[in-house]
Design brief:
alpha/beta, disordered C terminus
């Protein structure tokens, strides 16, 4: 009888904890969305850009996980953002059909994908439009993925080349994610949340011999404990409290400002630069093997131009440290004198009284147009070996 009452009590406690958990979830969701609305950049607050927050959130709501590349875009369709079945942003300015067209692959993170921009205003779309207007029949694939680093882009290129459709030119537009992946982690990483992804995969049960596949197997026990400590609050709440206490004690003496000492800045800069250089050398080897030309474009960040009052409102809390890291990284890479490397940090220097950046890395459609124009210039002068009165 006592056991029966004890079980009833446990069920009541569990139901109460579940109700509390649901309430906390609803409250935190509301608070997060409210804070997100308040903290939106100057750009998304403009009436003409009101579509962006909602459509962007919907497009990124259900990404798919590629075991080799990480999180990639899922197919999506809306009025302004459209992603094909392979997870790539469409380029609506491409001509019909690829036959007899100059084929260009473009890789990068969200800046190349077209953050803040509708399909026709992404860098690849604007570049395709410009080249075809120059009577250079071109077809451009936008392989930009949210959060991708140069390391992931290099892997992505290798995966696509296995389809045996070889491009004429491959363009990489990197810098921002390479910076943030390393600068916001206490240890070197090449992918956002690399350590968390690794732990999650390592926690998966390994395949067992057929003879062990019973209710009492290691896999079954692992699945049961994982379920209990994830969904049953009587188990998960105490576990979470203990974990939080341990993490608090291990980090309570850590000063976030000390993470960016002069020595740390130099170390992070070296890590980013060396990884980028190795990726560049891999790309060079692939270009020789497969016979395509390539461009390595180092993207401009917010501290590369004179800022407007709107741009000052979106500065990162560690902007000075990030500037130092990015500047040192750029210097190290340029010292290496990589083939086909172009530093784009100066493309907005002449723009004084117009807002271009919507955060540290992302730019307006006007900014995309300026970048696309620079790329067009490089392609015409160095790849197509043509000159026009425009340049």
């Amino acid at each position: 009888m006592k056991l029966y009452k004890f079980l009833i009590l446990l069920i009541i406690i569990e139901l109460a904890l579940q109700i509390i958990s649901l309430g906390l979830f609803c409250f935190n969701t509301f608070r997060y969305n409210n804070e997100k609305m308040i903290s939106r950049s100057w750009y998304s607050k403009l009436p003409e850009n009101s579509w962006w927050p909602k459509e962007s959130a919907a497009a990124q709501a259900h990404p798919t996980f590629d075991i080799f590349l990480g999180w990639i875009n899922a197919p999506f369709n809306s009025s302004h953002i459209n992603i094909d079945g392979q997870g790539n942003r469409i380029t609506p300015t491409n001509p019909t059909g690829k036959e007899n067209k100059y084929l260009i692959y473009m890789f990068g993170g969200s800046a190349l994908f077209g953050y803040n921009a509708e399909d026709k205003e992404t860098i690849p779309s604007l570049l395709s439009l410009a080249l075809n207007k120059q009577n250079i029949p071109s077809y451009i694939h936008n392989f930009g993925q949210i959060g991708f680093t140069s390391f992931q882009d290099t892997l992505y290129l290798q995966k696509i080349l296995k389809n045996n459709v070889i491009p004429n030119t491959v363009i990489f537009y990197n810098g921002c994610n390479d910076l943030f992946v390393s600068a916001t982690s206490l240890k070197p990483q090449r992918v956002y949340n690399e350590d968390l992804i690794q732990k999650a995969i390592q926690s998966l049960p390994k395949n067992e011999p057929v003879a062990n596949k019973s209710f009492f197997s290691h896999n079954s026990f692992h699945a049961l404990t994982s379920y209990l400590f994830t969904y049953i609050k009587i188990f998960s709440y105490p576990g979470n409290l203990i974990q939080t206490y341990i993490q608090h004690n291990s980090s309570k003496n850590t000063d976030t400002h000390m993470l960016y000492s002069a020595e740390t800045i130099q170390e992070i800069s070296n890590t980013i630069a060396n990884d980028y250089i190795h990726n560049a050398l891999t790309i060079e080897g692939l270009s020789k093997e497969y016979g395509f030309s390539y461009l390595l474009l180092w993207q401009p960040l917010i501290f590369s131009k004179s800022l407007t009052s709107d741009e000052h409102t979106i500065l990162h809390e560690h902007i000075d440290d990030l500037r130092k890291i990015y500047t040192q990284t750029t210097h190290i890479i340029k010292e290496k004198k990589l083939n086909n490397f172009y530093d784009f940090n100066g493309v907005f220097q002449t723009i004084k009284n117009e807002s271009i950046f919507t955060d540290t890395c992302h730019i307006t459609p006007k900014g995309n147009s300026i970048v696309a124009n620079e790329i067009e210039n490089i392609l015409i002068q160095n790849i197509f070996n043509r000159s026009t009165s425009k340049y």
